[in-house]
Model the fold of this input.
Amino acid sequence: MISELFECINELTKKIDRIENDIQNASIIVIKEYINASEKMIENQSYFLSGIQYGIPGKSYLLTSKGIEVLGEETIEIGIFINDVINYANNPTRKVEVLKDLATHLQKFLESKNNTSA
Done:
């Protein structure tokens, strides 16, 4: 009975490891897409990343041509910012939700960019 329980727990651990690996792979894609979007922005253009947070709540994050700007602070490299945001989410479910939020922001930004250039 106990050996079956440990076998079940080991399988759950393997599944969590696979999920964490998938989250990491998705994070890499999100980082690449954000960098690509940032590189295409003009200097004074920005996009507000509402609802995205890590650390102290209440900070505003803007996607710009320079990276992620935090109002009143230094610009953060996109890869560092996204990895920090994902790591701030303390469980796989929340990490997936954050990835979805980031992807939704990216989609909205690209749609608005396409609508203004059309």
Observations:
- The beta strands are 46-48, 61-64, 67-70, 75-76.
